[in-house]
Amino acid sequence: MSVWPKIIDVLASRDPRRRVRLVQWLIASAVYIGAATLLTTGVGQGWMNTSALALWLGFVVVVLASGYAALRSGWTERFRDPSLAVWQLSMGVLAVNWGYLICGPMRTSALFPIMVVFAFCAFTLRWRQIAFVTLLAVTSLVVAIVVRELYPHWVPAQGEVAPLRVDINNVLMLIVVLPAIAVIAARLSALRRKLHEQREALSHALSEVERLAVSDELTGIPNRRSMRFLLDRSVAFSAGGVTPFCIAVLDIDYFKAVNDDLGHAAGDEVLKSFARRATAELRNADVLARWGGEEFVLMMPGGLNNVSRVIERIGSSIRTGCHPTRHITFSAGIAQHRPTETVDQLLSRADVALYEAKRTGRDRYVLAD
What we know:
The protein is α+β, with helices and mostly antiparallel strands. The protein contains 13 helices and 5 strands.
């Protein structure tokens, strides 16, 4: 087994959340180290003062060491923001503008790491915190400029630098900064993709919930809840004299025997075949719903004459092919809505008619009253 995973576990912890915070710290540390390397080369080139660099490096080392110790130990997990994002980014802003103060002719390139700071802001902070870091960045930069102008003796003297050397230093600083920004951008892209996938999954789940709320899971036709809503609405229209309608309560004959003889899987297939064949015989405005078990409710606009023809078509289709080895029939009770009755009263009359159809031999329909 490679030793590197063990080293990473020691440095970055095995705790997933703590490891994410330490990886962010590692990215920031890489930018600090790259910037410090460039400043160190500036000593030999004559544009960086050794004592000024030593003070800046001391500040950076204290920030990195204290931040790592707090994150690795888990001490920060007692806080609302366990990553100490505001503190870390604020220290980064101060380090950048401190570098601007001491870099002399290279001070413009010293500002490049501020891009990493604000990339982290977009990744971790709320808008109020981003506003704070922005204000700190502008204020501290203004202070650095004022100090350079009003107290030039506070700033270590730096020599002149050739324009090409400035350009090279700018490129090198970009090489330090851009990989860190690319890593942050990649993480943001991954989060955005994950969020999109979660949103798609949630949308699909909600659609499925909505479908299941109004559809019978086994047969795919409307369920009891959906039919009840439709009946309530139809009763309201019928009571106002707008659209008369009828209902039929259909019950498969001897369905218990199908389950007992052939098994529940065969019974489920009979229910699905019944729903499919019955639906194929309906008119455009008719609605068939599974009411429960082997019982179905059919809602049909119009009078009893039209309803009888629909029931006869359904019966013929069911007898000829609902099951390959079993002769399947159903009984039905039909009732036309009366303007003064409720849904429950209408269903009760249809149930009485269904009972009569069962009592008188099955495989038939009976008109209520």
